[in-house]
């Protein structure tokens, strides 16, 4: 220990000086933050508004429905995550079950959240806070990903028209800032779409996120497509498989697995980008934080509220990153 | 055995840009025949056999496989590919699928067999190439020789009438060459029509019905193994043999 210190931190006079300056800096930060956390921070702003921050103005009597949604989600994700480690026999039986359960639970969860058909309807204007953030992020991800695969494949197409359209779309979107696209989605979509289709503000925001992220994801997927060796396609052709089958069975599974880290990176960035929706009066996590800060009795409690909100964002992003590392592992051991 | 031509190539020409890879190659192969194509690298032998299942196109000439003329018609190409199996130098197994899935993929999706039938056939083939116990592993967990044997089983699962081998042992460590050649040898005795591009002199001498020498995109000489090795007619063949023997 002593010798390690001497060798790495105090080996020359300027390193000693640097070490001391750093120690002083660390001490200042730790005591400053610690002091603030323990003596000055007043978390009652978070405690009082906890429900608001988590679910917005969702009716208190109906919150049990959200707990149920959460439980279903945790259960489903949990089972899906442990599935690869199970015995082959159990795994084989579980796979078709999960494939059926996923879409079914999505419908069920949406019904639980939105209500109707026996449950008290809860309009989208009442959804808010973390609930809305998770919902927007999830729906945008689920919609953007298939769109991006189509764009990526289209960009590699031998048909010039398809290739030009996909390339043009991707390059156009990548040249625009997200905030601009979100404004366009709010203002322009109602102009373009027929008058009967009056998309509500939430759907317009999701459309903006989907259109934007699909372009970026498409470039990630394209990278994966190019990484699949030509021999794979040749072997599949030689077996008599046609082009669509080769794409779906051979090329895409390999392409997507090689770019999982990049894709998850984009998912994480999408998750955080939902905070921009607060600019369109949508009360997702950041939006609701701003409205909490506008309450007269809690004026100026920026640090507490934004720290709490930041923690929530971090928990979900970090979880996503960890989960994606698990997806990568079995693939790495195979190749 | 009735000797009917199953592969007919007539005056096949191919250009890569200005480079004339195949300069009018003609070759007829009978059903049940084992033909070994030899020649220096760059002589066009791989390109030539890859025209048989339309992995390479050609600009001039005519190729007829099992009575079907190769054309740009995709249905024609698909029909021919179902009858022609191919084994590659780099194995080209699908790394994301298990050995069993690699073999059953095409029978299930192309031949529309049931999963049970496809798996039974696959397991029989794995037994035949001597690696039944590896059925549930992924290709990356196998040695090169084992992978190439899986690749042979995968091609055989489509019950092809013709098998093309494109330098099947060139990417293998020397100690694994034999296990692959043994499988090919037993396949040859079973009466399969085989076209083999290889540098394995021993295999050619022992298994081939006919040996073909290609050089610079042209067919130099074709003869039985005995004739080819002991009494070559062409000066080019003598020079080639002097280099490899």
Write the layout of secondary structure elements.
The complex is a heterodimer of chains A (335) and B (245).
Chain A: H1 2-8, H2 13-40, H3 44-48, H4 50-55, H5 63-82, H6 88-114, H7 129-155, H8 160-174, H9 178-187, H10 189-192, H11 201-227, H12 230-238, H13 243-258, H14 260-273, H15 285-293, H16 302-334
Chain B: E1 5-16, E2 19-30, E3 34-38, H1 45-52, E4 60-65, E5 68-69, H2 74-83, E6 84-87, H3 99-109, H4 115-128, H5 144-156, E7 162-166, H6 174-189, E8 193-197, H7 201-207, E9 210-215, E10 218-223, H8 225-230, H9 235-244
Parallel strand pairs in B: 3-8, 3-9, 6-7, 7-8
Antiparallel strand pairs in B: 1-2, 1-4, 4-5, 9-10
Q: What this model shows, in words?
A:
Among the domains of chain A are: 59-121; 127-273 and 319-335, Orthogonal Bundle (MetI-like fold). In chain A, 77% of the residues lie in helices and 0% in strands. Chain A has helices at residues 2-8, 13-40, 44-48, 50-55, 63-82, 88-114, 129-155, 160-174, 178-187, 189-192, 201-227, 230-238, 243-258, 260-273, 285-293, 302-334. The radius of gyration of chain A is 25 Å and the shape is globular. The model of chain A is unreliable at 331-335 (pLDDT under 50). Chain B has 245 residues and is of the alpha/beta class. In chain B, strands 6-7-8-3-9-10 form a six-stranded mixed sheet, sandwiched between helices. In chain B, strands 2-1-4-5 form a four-stranded antiparallel sheet, covered by helices on one side. In chain B, strand 9 and strand 10 form a beta hairpin. The longest helix of chain B is centred in the last third of the chain and has 16 residues, at 174-189. Chain B is globular. The relative contact order of chain B is 0.17. The model of chain B has no long low-confidence stretch (mean pLDDT 92). The interface between A and B is medium-sized, with 23 and 29 residues.
């Amino acid at each position: 220990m002593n010798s390690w210190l001497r060798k790495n931190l105090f080996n020359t006079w300027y390193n000693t000086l640097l070490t001391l300056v750093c120690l002083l800096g660390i001490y200042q930060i730790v005591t400053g933050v610690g002091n603030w956390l323990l003596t000055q921070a007043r978390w009652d702003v978070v405690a009082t508004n906890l429900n608001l921050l988590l679910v917005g103005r969702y009716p208190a009597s109906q919150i049990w429905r959200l707990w149920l949604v959460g439980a279903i989600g945790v259960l489903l994700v949990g089972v899906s995550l442990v599935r690869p480690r199970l015995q082959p026999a159990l795994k084989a039986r579980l796979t078709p079950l999960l494939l059926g359960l996923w879409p079914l639970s999505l419908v069920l969860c949406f019904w639980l959240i939105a209500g109707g058909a026996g449950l008290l309807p809860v309009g989208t204007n009442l959804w808010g806070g973390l609930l809305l953030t998770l919902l927007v992020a999830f729906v945008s991800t689920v919609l953007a990903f298939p769109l991006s695969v189509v764009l990526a494949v289209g960009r590699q197409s031998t048909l010039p028209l398809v290739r030009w359209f996909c390339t043009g779309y991707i390059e156009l979107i990548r040249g625009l800032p997200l905030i601009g696209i979100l404004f366009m989605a709010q203002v322009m979509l109602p102009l373009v779409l027929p008058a009967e289709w009056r998309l509500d503000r939430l759907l317009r925001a999701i459309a903006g996120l989907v259109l934007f992220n699909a372009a970026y994801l498409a470039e990630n997927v394209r990278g994966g497509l190019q990484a699949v060796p030509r021999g794979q396609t040749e072997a599949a052709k030689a077996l008599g498989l046609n082009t669509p089958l080769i794409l779906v069975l051979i090329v895409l599974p390999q392409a997507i697995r090689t770019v999982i880290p990049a894709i998850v990176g984009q998912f994480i960035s999408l998750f955080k980008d939902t905070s921009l929706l607060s600019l369109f009066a949508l009360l997702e996590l950041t939006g609701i934080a701003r409205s909490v800060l506008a309450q007269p009795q809690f004026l100026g409690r920026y640090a507490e509220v934004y720290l709490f909100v930041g923690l929530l964002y971090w928990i979900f992003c970090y979880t996503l990153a960890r989960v994606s590392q698990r997806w990568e592992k079995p693939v790495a051991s195979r190749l | 055995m009735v000797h009917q031509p199953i592969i007919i190539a007539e005056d096949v020409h191919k250009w890569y840009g200005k480079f004339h890879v195949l300069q009018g190659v003609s070759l007829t192969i009978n059903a049940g025949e084992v033909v070994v194509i030899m020649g220096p690298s760059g002589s066009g032998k791989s390109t030539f056999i890859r025209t048989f299942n339309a992995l390479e196109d050609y600009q001039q000439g005519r190729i007829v496989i099992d009575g079907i003329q190769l054309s740009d018609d995709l249905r024609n190409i698909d029909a021919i590919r179902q009858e022609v199996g191919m084994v590659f130098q780099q194995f080209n197994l699908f790394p994301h699928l298990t050995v069993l899935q690699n073999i059953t993929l095409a029978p299930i999706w192309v031949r529309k067999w049931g999963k049970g039938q496809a798996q039974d056939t696959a397991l029989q083939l794995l037994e035949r190439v001597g690696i039944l116990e590896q059925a549930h592993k992924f290709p990356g967990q196998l040695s090169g020789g084992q992978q190439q044997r899986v690749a042979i089983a995968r091609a055989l699962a489509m019950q092809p009438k013709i098998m093309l081998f494109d330098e099947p042992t060139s990417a293998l460590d020397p100690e694994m060459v034999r296990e692959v050649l043994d499988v090919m040898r037993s396949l040859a005795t079973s009466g399969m029509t085989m076209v083999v591009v290889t540098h394995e002199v021993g295999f050619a001498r022992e298994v081939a019905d006919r040996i073909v020498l290609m050089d610079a995109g042209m067919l130099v000489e074709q003869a039985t193994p005995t004739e080819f090795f002991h009494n070559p007619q062409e000066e080019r063949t003598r020079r080639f043999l002097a280099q490899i023997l």
